[in-house]
Amino acid sequence: MTSHPSSDGKNRLSTFVSCGVILTLLSGTPGLVNSQEIIQPAHVPGFSRLFDKKEQLPRERHQLAGRILLGELNCVSCHRAKEAMITASPILQRSAPVLDHIGSRVRPEWLHNFLSDPHVFKPGTAMPDMLAGMNDDQRQSTVEALVHFLASTGSVAEMMADRAAIERGQTQFHRLGCVACHGPHPLDPQLTAEAATVNDIRGDSESDDDEFRPYDPGPSSSAFFVPLGRPAKKYTVFSLKTFLLDPLAVRPSGRMPAFPLTEDEATDLAAYFFRDSEFTPNVTWKYYEGNWNVLPNFDDLNPAAEGVAVGFDLSSAPRKNQFGMRFSGYLHLVANGKYKFYLGSDDGSRLTINNQEIVNVDGTHPYQQKTQEQEFSEGIYPIVVDYFQGGGEWVVTAEYEGPGIPRQPLATAVTLTADEKPLTATHFHVDPELAARGRVLFGELGCAACHTLRENGSPIPFPSHDKIPALTALDPRAASGCLGDNPKPIVPRYPLNEPQLLSLRTTITALKKPSFDKPADNQLEAVLQDRIHQTLAIFNCYACHRRGELGGVTRDINEYFTTTTPEMGDEGRLPPTLTGIGDKLTTEWMKKIFNEGTNDRPYMHSRMPKFGLENVGHLVDVLPKLDLVTASKKPESLESPHRMKSNGRFLAGDKALSCIKCHRFGQHAGTGLSSIDLTTMTQRLREDWYYRYMLNPQDYRPGTRMPAPWPFGQATVRNVLEGNATQQMMAVWDYLQEGPQAPVPTGLIAEAIELIPESTPIVYRNFIEGVNPRAIAVGYPEKVHLTFDAENCNWALIWHGQFIDASRHWTGRGPGFQRPLGDHVVSFDSRSAFAELENKETAWPTSAPSEQKISFRGYRLDAKRRPIFRYRISSFAVEDYPEPLIDNTHPEPGWRRTVTVTADESIQKPTKLWFRVANGSSISLIDDGSYLVNDTLRIKIDSMTEPLVRTVDNHSELMIPVTLVDGKSTFVIDMIW
Amino acid sequence: MRFLSFLSVLAMGTLLPAQENPSTEADYYRLLTLPIPEELVLEIGGMELLPDGKLAVATRRGDIYLVNNALTDPIEKVTYQLYAEGLHEILGLDFKNGSLYATHRCEVTKLTDEDGDGQADLFDTVSAAWGITGDYHEYAFGSDFDAEGNIWVVLCLTGSFSSEAKYRGWCLRITPEGHVIPTCSGIRSPGGIESNHKGEMFFTENQGPWNGMCALKHLKPGGFVGHPAGFRWYDLPEVANVMGPKPLEPESGSRIHIQCERIPELVPPAILFPYKKMGQSASGIACDESDGKFGPFAHQMFVGDQSASTVMRVYLEEVNGVYQGACFPFREGFASGTLPLEMMPDGTMMVGGTNRGWGSRGPAPFSLERLIWTGKVPFEIHEMHIQPDGFELTFTQSIDAATAADVASYTIETYTNIYQASYGSPEVDHTAPQINKAIVGDDRKSVRLIIDGLQIGHVHELHADGVRSSKGLPLLHPAAYYTLNQIPIK
Questions:
Q1: A602: helix, coil or strand?
Q2: How many CB pairs under 8 A join A and B?
Q3: CB contact under 8 A, B133 and A766
Q4: Where exactly are the structural domains of chain B?
Q5: How do residues A130-144 score in pLDDT, each as one tens digit?
């Protein structure tokens, strides 16, 4: 169970427990709760925000707090409050979850526990206890009837969670922004303490300046964390995934917003909540290796491995290509009737039930799904899923649906042996009589007052609604009411603490006065401020965003806000400020964000979720009223529209302001960083805000890395639009109004910079793909090229044709490794060419070059400017000289590699030094006395000593022992391919 | 609801009538842009004037060109010849005994033209003592030779955050024999390296993790200059023998002067460049040893800013064995992002520019420019000295006693930044010291400011807007930013 440490050291619960209402509630349910048990008050983040500070809340703030509670506890769904809803700062009603088809989402067992005692089972829930006035027997039978009724609306589809999905889900949970409202998992006090140290920058210094302070996370926000309950007990992986994809479908109030998630991301996230759930292995698998185009007959093959798994899980396969798997188990079908089976795979697969082929998706193909309907009678059948993978993507999925069984993964109905019970066997059996009684109770008890549950399209009514007094007719101090010490049996019981009670009573009392809520003209701004504050608090926008002095990511969750691009600093990881947001964003874009959520800043791991226009749409009107700074008309353009645009394009490019160095442009990443997309800029931003921002970005985003493109209003690019800064700003705006159709600015798409050796070789020291970073590529006019590895001191690559494209390294910052531009690339071993071996069986060393005393000494260019590489190994100096080898019998030139070894002192006797010419899977001596390596490279050796070919474990090496004459040895190796 | 006129916002630079201001930077230091042939891409990373008068210019593409007649004016005679190619992003160049020494990404290379055809043919590896992983951030900046003939190399971290290969985040000295002396830890992302007139080595550091602002830092052998990512290399015996044991890890979120008390090896930045006010990407360094040929700023340091396309001026002093001092705006308007600065024997300064990968205010993709003193002395704060009870300012010209003695001619505030593991920092801990008195010196070229509330570890941002020269001129640059590490006792 999640616990919530108090942020200010004051235990609010103690005040709560002393509250008479709750003591009555507790004593009414003996056996479920003892008086020592601490019950949390209803968790309302918007309310908690107002009590963020230690001081007492002034009376008028209690009214705002009370309005938040009236909405969040949904008091107004029973107590009508017309007057309070249409004023300048209306109550924002949090409608209760829609219960249509709740049986297909929530497990009946959970419903039973929750309804029996909501506040103990889900601490912090805002759901009132409707049955508190009943005795134990009444309560139990009521709960049972309600559960049967609710369960009759559908049945849950099962799904399993594999380890990999859980781990992905854990990552997503912590970086998408879930932690902003729900806190990190687990709530580890150690972790929180460390985060506090890392981010404790406020120290003892004053903190009362109102500057945007991205680096200054406030104190803990754990007081606002919304409890998650026990999702693994409530949902299945499948139903939780469905919920996460569109929470507003069942919780239209938007308090749980919808993150823009793909189906896979939602599945992973859902799986994460099942990390502690045990899924029993339910299939046997056998694994085969081979290269097939269609499914082989696995019966004739010997498996290379076997085992058991949870579901048809391919992750047990030791390799990702050229393998097959057979999964077997027992399928439990619980009813007679028509079943539909779905089988999909990349590459081929086949579903067999009861030795009869049901679906066949055989062959080599991308993911493809087929279905088949088939009658089955209730029973247990042997089931086999066969699968093979050639290359590329690899996946297999199997689902089914049947009489009363919604579509769900097939594996949930499969067991390892015939006597076990499958996951689906836990299905709840609805008693129709109990369900009918539950339906009546649902309306009578008042569940229907808050929860919509539609039958044939119309919601179940709450017949007694008219008997409940309106909000303005309430006596907030009545002992027998919801807030009283001695409530009537039928009255719902809310878990409220003293500040909550005080706020509610104050507000209800104030509502009774007709003058309430009619602000004087000079109070208009304050009313608007309140309205925005109320909304940002209720929807917990403050958990991520700062506006003015309020909100922003707090230190205990700060570390979970991460970025793909650390160089962007905090701007790249923390959600943007909402200060002045109504001035900055267009109303259209605000609507779009509220209605769809957004991932406009893909470098930021957190995403902006959808809150729903119907819930927060009023901000679109209210924010500009407060924030907007209006500007007068812009000046006339100096040029015609198309010239303004072409000037704007030039200004955005690398020859002028270089906006594209740091900004994404549609599908093209920026050449340095890749911050927010320029092609959506004019849709996002209000035009006159843009002009002001451009003059000094620091005024709007203190600490931003965005430079002032027109510093002090001066144009640094003098030759465009007469060097007039205003005109240049207009030109960029006009150009970007083309949006995704805007032609790409210069310098964004790297043009190839092909290096072509014409009369002399070209040396190119840079990062070459497949070679140590200390690489020296050399291109020769003869159109044969090589890369020398200056770390290991050996040849690394040789190739023919074109040399190399330098644009990767000579455009932008130049990250990454570049592959040769030409063809016939042959790669050598990455290790050194020389080694000192004890004897000819000694394995070629794998230790670092420095440990073998190998060091690169440089190179000398000969008269043709061809490099002679120089390096040392222990007491020997080596010169390694590549020359293009023109052999008329061969279409392309080869290489002549002349290697000269010189000992520091004259050593005449044989040394332990060996030179390895080549190595590979096959080396053979062929007719003309040359060696053929890997059926590709033909090598001829001219050396004083006889070369040696040795083969160990299918790996061959062609080696020359180094014998010195007068302290020297030279050998020549010719290579063609 | 606020109302702001579009025109009033935009008018600042463009629509107001240009003020008739006789004093601009260009009146005192003029910029001469050297022509670069169309076919050349000269993204300059290092420069060195050779004994024969040719200017060797090394580029980020790995070429070295020799520029003929680089110091002539008019510039029509400037020509280029290719001396070498194929090195890996050269960011340091010096010359000794007929050979050029280039510090580039993977090593220090000695280049020699043995056959005298004007092109290097011998490329000797002097040292490849450090590791590279293939991350583009792993730059290596090399100094000129010090008095012992060593080249000092400062090595950027991997990805500028961590140390994934040997000596990333370290300063090494490479001896003439190619031996390596580990010299300082704590480097993050350098932009230049140069010694002052006493031979003490300094480098520029860029804002980022453990660096709230860009800075000029003293490379005191054995010291730790701020970013602990490279601490793992203290575990190597060859490091421990020279450097001693690993320093204490700094505490993130603290202030550097507080951590200096905990960590004896920690050397505080000599100069902090407040973000945006004094650029945002500190780069090349030059020291004026021109004996007055470059103007009145003998022995002062000059520091480029790549992003702002500027050169800033730095006055350093040593107090209690720790360097500190003031930086001043000096010259803006360079064509591209200023990277290397190199003083020429004739007292002019060569400035190389590039903005590939990092945008700059100067829009040219690359540039080679020469900054020339016109012979006119600008009215500037010459030096700014710390005193036990305030500052002493000296000026380049005699001052008007009335305005200089008026405390209302000055404003001062202080602030510092957070010393923390996350990226950068805002200005924090602002204070407003009180200037009690301004006492004009007998020479009429200095002022003693008696101040209450000096703050150790803070930048003291002083504006002397009201001070006039004896001829009635305002200061060309009235702002000064003094980084206070130590207050002298006497």
A1: coil
A2: 205
A3: no
A4: 26-373, 381-483
A5: 898 889 999 999 999
Give the DSSP H or E segment for B271: strand B271-273
Q: What integer pLDDT is reported at residue A786 of this predicted model?
A: 97
CATH architecture assignment, domain B381-483: Sandwich (2.60)
The model carries a pTM of: 0.71
Predicted pLDDT at A317:
83
Residue A9 confidence (pLDDT): 35
> What local confidence, expressed as pLDDT, does residue B3 receive?
41
Question: Residue with structure tokens 């009033």?
Answer: B8
| Chain B residue numbers touching A806 (CB-CB < 8 A) | 61
- A464-469 LR contacts (CB < 8 Å, sep 24+): A465/A78, A468/A78, A468/A79, A468/A80, A469/A79
Of the candidates B87, B133, B358, the beta carbon closest to that of A773 is on: B133
Tell me, what CATH number does A922's domain have? Answer: 2.70.98
By residue range, what is the domain housing residue A724? 641-741
| Chain A residues within 8 A of B358 when measuring between CB atoms | 661, 672, 813
Between chains, do B357 and A865 touch, taking CB under 8 Å as contact? no
Which pLDDT score, from 0 to 100, does residue A54 have?
Answer: 46
Task: Identify which of A138, A137, A135, A123 has the alpha carbon closest to the alpha carbon of residue A28.
Answer: A135
* The pairing of beta strand B122-127 with beta strand A414-415: unpaired
Give the Å distances, CA to CA, from B252 to A497, A843, B210. 39, 49, 8
Predicted confidence (pLDDT) at residue A282 exceeds the cutoff of 50:
yes
Which of residues A539 and B159 earns the better pLDDT score?
Answer: A539
Does residue A789 share a domain with residue A720? no
What are the chain A neighbours of B104 within 8 Å (beta carbons)?
765
- Let me know whether A330 and A394 are in one domain: yes
My answer on whether A291 and A368 are in the same domain is: yes
List the Cα angle A754/A757/A758 in 5-degree steps.
Answer: 120
Q: Give the residue, A79 or B463, on which the prediction is more confident.
A: B463
Judged by average pLDDT, the poorest of A205-209, A673-677, B472-476 is: A205-209
Interchain pair A810, B6: CB under 8 A: no
Q: Do A566 and B161 touch (CB under 8 A)?
A: yes
Which residue of A202, A209, A215 is the best one to mutate when testing the B interface, meaning the one whose CB has the most B CBs within 10 A? A215
Q: Do A658 and B276 touch (CB under 8 A)?
A: no
- Do residue A463 and residue A330 come from a single domain? no
Nearest CB among A203, A655, A762 relative to B363 is that of A655
Number of folded domains that form chain A: 4
Q: Are residues A325 and A356 in the same domain?
A: yes
Asked if the structure places residue A605 within a domain, the reply is: no
Q: Alpha-carbon dihedral of residues B282, B283, B284, B290, nearest 10 degrees?
A: -20
Q: Is residue A314 domain-shared with residue A382, that is, in the same domain? A: yes
Are residues A481 and A366 part of one domain? Answer: no
Min Cα–Cα distance to chain A from B478, Å: 17
pLDDT digits 0-9 by tens, A227-270: 787 888 899 998 999 999 999 999 999 999 999 999 889 999 99
**Shortest CA gap A752–chain B (Å):** 15
Angstroms from A815 CA to nearest CA on chain B? 5
pLDDT, chain A, mean = 85
CATH architecture of B26-373: 6 Propeller (2.120)
